[in-house]
From TrEMBL:
Keyword Hydrolase recorded: yes
Alphabetical UniProt keywords: Hydrolase
A Pfam family annotated for this UniProt entry: FGase
Biological source species: Sphingomonas trueperi
Taxonomic lineage from the root: Bacteria, Pseudomonadati, Pseudomonadota, Alphaproteobacteria, Sphingomonadales
Residue stretches spanning the membrane: none
Any one Gene Ontology molecular-function term assigned to this protein's record: hydrolase activity
Protein name: Putative N-formylglutamate amidohydrolase
Amino acid sequence: MSVAEILPGSAQDVLLLCDHASNAVPPDIDLGIDPALLNLHIGIDIGAADVTRALAARLDAPAILATVSRLVIDLHREPDHIGLIPHRSDGHAIPGNEAADRAARIARFHAPYHRVLRDRVRRQRPSLILSIHSFTPCLEHGGTPRPWEIGILYNRDTRAAGPAVEWLRAQGLVTGDNEPYSGRLLNATLNRHAEAQGIPSIAIEIRNDLIRDTAGVQAWAARLQQLALFLRNTLASKGVTAT
């Protein structure tokens, strides 16, 4: 199977990414779980792929969507991260991963996926990268309700994050600033392909109960389109342009 779905687009100043777009498990990998778990947030970022596709169409921007479930390998983790091949996720055991060949899964999925991202960034040189994710309103085990409608995650580069948080809050949206978890800890893809390359970026986390249907997807794609246009103008005014 291909490690990524690539959507074309003529707007070269923006690139969209979706690391947890799929709940697919290759036929030769047995996770040892009830297949229904793949439809939960532990198997896929619910709604994120649909929002990414809708936003890509609105912006006429290229997008890269991963094609394997995060329960097979989490493409949004560094290769040495303890949760790269999860043995447990939100209280659910993943017994098929206990004896998984870590090096083989990295070589099969993680390394080629990140090569796709690397090569695209090198060719395109976008002036803004948006990574689309979703989060569950409340974890099943030990969680508390998460009030944010959307969160903006980032590491050290705040050129896009600061204006994005301000803009979203000005729209009346309950916005998390590095919430519901910190981009200082969970920002692997953007750390490598955006921040390390000097490209402004943000990870956008939408609460998944808001994007479970077509109406929600389109409403949030419209909001993110306006956010992207705002960030384009803001970054351009600061002299950040595609090269």
